[in-house]
From TrEMBL:
Keyword DNA damage among UniProt keywords: no
Compartmental location: Cell membrane
InterPro entries: 2C_sensor_his_kinase (IPR050980), HAMP_dom (IPR003660), HATPase_C_sf (IPR036890), HATPase_dom (IPR003594), His_kinase_dom (IPR005467), HisK_dim/P_dom (IPR003661), HisK_dim/P_sf (IPR036097), Sig_transdc_His_kin-like_C (IPR004358)
Recorded topology in the membrane: Multi-pass membrane protein
Cofactor needs: Mg(2+); Mn(2+)
SUPFAM superfamilies: ATPase domain of HSP90 chaperone/DNA topoisomerase II/histidine kinase, HAMP domain-like, Homodimeric domain of signal transducing histidine kinase
Name listed for the protein in its UniProt record: Signal transduction histidine-protein kinase/phosphatase MprB
TM regions (residue ranges): 67-86, 92-111
Length: 386
């Protein structure tokens, strides 16, 4: 079946189909011509000139009434010219009144479909002001009103997702803060009441909970900087062998029961921010250590791949399902692999650091025969800052 801009046209007279096709081609040609550099300044000047013209129909509150007045005025001027060309022949007043009434009725019926999406958008905007972002505008129109409705639906979906993420953020932050605060409060209450002594073991537990709170606050601060667009970068040339050795040594202190093996090519260098990159690999190694089984190990690889440096952090845990591999880089997403102690922010911050360095990060499948059968997180960073 032939279609015209996605619509069935078998029921339309051929002259209407032909006229619609011609108008569509003229509109597209005009849009293409307007985008050309030699014509664009002229079109901008015409728009500025038209923008200074008076708007006598602004007080009218109905768009259908505006269309009626505009078409009536244009039609009246045309009929006046025609009447003049006919030597002011006498006119039948009843015939004119009937024609005007029929024209207004036809315009109301024809304009109804064009104004319904606008009324729906008005109602949806009012609902959004009350916190309801689920309303959508339904239209099959392909004109500017249809494009506006489509853009409105995209905006509503983005606002709905942002509002949902905000609620999840508040709930997750409250949960993550409550756990160490509750533990600290109980421990301090026992010490104050004399139930327990402030021995090194109790103080060590309190210190661990305090460090967990500090880490969460630091990660939230990083995310706030990310949302605000504040991304201070201090790039320098980094010798990766010493740099990665320091990161691995620090991670080994935090997770002494999980061996970490470093396998890096010699003389590798990278232009980047040492503090941010340290944060990246520390988060990746910490995530791998927390998900490694008893007796498992971690491997960190670094090798030159063309103009990039390819890093891979692999563990011997249960791995990450394919369906979850993209979501693990979202905020507060810990997945089924997570045990206790994680905030769900480490991989989100890792992706942010990678993006700051114009690289990529992804969870990939292990190579055949690889003894590291768990999760494999691959990071690709350009060796030189372009």
């Amino acid at each position: 079946m032939n279609t015209l801009r996605g619509r069935p046209e078998s029921g339309l007279p051929w002259i209407i189909r032909f006229g619609s096709l011609v108008l569509d081609r003229i509109y597209r040609a005009g849009s293409w011509l307007r985008a050309r550099p030699p014509v664009r300044p002229l079109m901008d000047a015409v728009e500025r000139l038209l923008g200074r013209l008076p708007r006598p129909l602004d007080p009218v509150r109905s768009i259908k009434a505006k269309l009626s007045l505009a078409l009536g005025l244009a039609g009246g001027v045309g009929l006046l010219v025609l009447w003049y060309s006919l030597k002011w022949i006498p006119l039948n007043v009843a015939f004119i009144a009937s024609a005007v009434a029929l024209a207004l009725l036809t315009l109301q019926i024809a304009a109804h479909g064009a104004t319904v999406p606008l009324r729906e958008m008005t109602d949806a905007a009012r609902q959004m002001a009350r916190g309801d972002y689920t309303r959508r505008v339904h239209t099959n129109s392909r004109d500017e009103v249809g494009e506006l409705a489509a853009a409105f639906n995209v905006m509503a979906a983005d606002l709905d997702a942002a509002d949902r993420q905000r609620r999840e953020l508040i709930a997750n932050v409250s949960h993550e803060l409550r756990t160490p605060i509750t533990a600290l409060r109980g421990m301090l209450e026992n010490i104050v009441d004399g139930v327990s002594e402030p021995d090194p073991a109790a103080m060590g537990t309190a210190l661990a909970q305090t460090e967990r709170l500090g880490k969460l606050v630091a990660e939230l601060l990083d995310l706030s900087r990310l949302d605000a667009g504040i991304v201070p970068m201090k790039r320098t040339e980094i010798a990766l062998d010493d740099f990665l050795a320091d990161v691995v040594a620090e991670a080994q202190v935090n997770h002494p029961s999980v061996p970490i093996r470093l396998d890096a090519d010699g003389d590798l260098t990278l232009d980047g921010d040492p503090e941010r990159l340290h944060q990246l690999f520390a988060n990746l190694l910490d995530n791998a250590a927390r998900h490694s089984p008893a007796g498992g190990s971690i491997r960190l690889n670094a090798a030159l791949d063309g103009d990039d440096v390819l890093f891979a952090v692999a563990d011997q845990g249960s791995g990450i399902p394919v369906a979850e591999r993209e979501r693990v880089f979202e905020r507060f997403t810990r997945g089924e692999r997570a045990t206790g102690g994680g905030t769900g922010l480490g991989l989100a911050i890792a992706r942010w650091v990678v993006q700051l360095h114009h690289g990529s990060i992804a969870v990939v499948d292990p190579r055949p025969g690889d003894t590291m059968t768990g999760a494999h997180v691959q990071v690709r960073l350009p060796a030189r800052n372009s």
